[in-house]
Design a protein that fits this description.
The chain is of the alpha/beta class and 359 residues long. It folds into two domains: 179 residues, HUPs (Rossmann fold, 3-Layer(aba) Sandwich), CATH 3.40.50; 122 residues, no CATH class. Helix content is 38%, strand content 24%. It has eleven helices and 13 strands. The strands form two sheets. It has an eight-stranded mixed beta sheet. The protein has a five-stranded parallel beta sheet with strand order 3-2-1-4-5, with helices on both faces. The longest helix has 20 residues. The chain is elongated and about 80 Å long. The two termini are 40 Å apart. The chain binds iron/sulfur cluster (SF4). Iron/sulfur cluster binds next to helix 4. The site of iron/sulfur cluster (SF4) has 9 residues, from helix 4.
């Protein structure tokens, strides 16, 4: 039987139950989820499904991440709510490819772990599953593992097995809607060009879950704990003088009441300049290098290959901007004389991140 898999939280419990109910059936997992956005989240969910299938002894096939084809399929339905028309198309796409794969592999039956998700419409899944199974000459197996306390059991297992528990369905549109309802920025969509790993980001989580696999392979103990913290994202920022943009690097937690200001440096000493508006401090690249123990030759170099956020926080602290201080700190090649224009659009918000504690 080919089992279309959406995520480990659904698949681990679902596969366990399938193995009990179909002891003579050889199960093959099929991870085909091009709806998942961004790609780092796709990789994270796949990583955890690989771990789960390995534990259960189930072979796993990865489908193609044909995201653009998925986007084209749901075009025009972006604003639909969850369980609406966009989800129906999303199931169509995933089930059709799964049914084709089942036929290609010579499987007689197919099913999907989406059936166990309490957030999905059972009727929608059944309708789509049956339709495509029939079209490709396989049997759709509509098992119900939600009822009879199944959902509670699934939650217990997911905790016990320390599975990665995502907090959105998967696609860009569902994510944006969900974050709007929660009044939270969709920080999953921030992806710096320089590729740096931001605090509380999917990339940070991906690294952590990769690390935990290493620990498991080495037989070492660990815990995954959740922590509340104040997160930060810089959306846009620049420094200009006489209409020319100066190369600048804005450190984390730089916040301005009004996004734009105009002023000048009132005082400077040892590579630090005190600006006369918005409590802004400017720092020369030379001084930054001294504190961060780095060797950047230009601010552009720093911009495209920055230090980890922890180092930037240490730099802030070294110039007197410790915990709770949200004054802007900006690295420039030198402290300029004369008037400057500064623009910073950023967001500060309470967030939760997962941390790996090695025992
Ligand atoms: S909300 Fe979920 S099921 Fe609906 S379209 Fe997005 S990824 Fe697919």
């Amino acid at each position: 039987m080919l089992v279309h898999i959406c995520c480990s939280v659904d698949s681990h419990f679902f596969l366990q139950r399938l193995k009990e109910d179909f002891p003579d059936e050889k199960l093959t997992g099929f991870f085909y989820d091009p709806n998942i956005h961004p790609y780092s989240e796709y990789r994270l969910r796949l990583l955890d499904v690989q771990r789960s299938c390995k534990k259960l002894g189930v072979a796993l096939v990865e489908g193609e991440y044909d995201y653009e084809r998925w986007l084209a399929a749901v075009k025009g339905y972006e604003l639909e709510p969850e369980k609406g028309a966009r989800c129906e198309i999303c199931f169509d796409r995933r089930f059709e490819v799964s049914a084709k794969m089942a036929r290609k592999l010579g499987e007689k039956r197919m099913t999907t772990t989406l059936l166990v998700s309490p957030k999905k419409s059972w009727e929608q899944l059944l309708k789509t599953g049956r339709r495509f199974a029939k079209e490709y000459g396989v049997e759709f197996v509509p098992v119900d593992y939600r009822s009879g306390g199944g959902t509670q059991m699934q939650q217990q297992i997911s905790k016990k097995e320390r599975l990665y528990r995502q907090d959105y369905c998967g696609c860009l549109f569902g994510l944006v809607q969900q974050r709007e309802q929660q009044g939270k920025p969709a920080d999953e969509l921030f992806s710096p060009l320089c590729g740096s790993v931001l605090p509380g980001s999917i990339e940070e989580r991906l690294r952590m879950y990769e690390k935990r696999l290493e620990l498991e392979e080495e037989g070492r103990g660990y815990r995954i704990v959740r922590q509340k913290f104040l997160n930060y994202r810089l959306k846009l920022g620049w420094v200009r003088q006489k209409k020319e943009t100066l190369p600048s690097y804005i450190l984390p937690y730089s916040t301005m009441k009004r996004r734009y200001t105009k002023g000048r440096v009132e005082e400077q000493s040892e590579g630090i300049g005190w600006f006369n508006r918005e409590e802004i401090r400017l720092i020369t690249l030379e001084r930054y290098n001294e504190i961060a123990q780095s060797a950047y030759e230009s601010v552009s170099e720093l911009l495209y290959a920055p230090m980890p956020s922890e180092t930037d926080l240490k730099v802030r602290e070294s110039v007197g901007l410790g915990l709770w201080d949200l004054s802007p700190l900006i690295v420039l090649e030198r402290i300029p004389e004369g008037n400057l224009e500064i623009f910073i659009e950023s967001e500060i918000y309470p967030d939760v991140r997962e941390k790996l504690v090695v025992l």
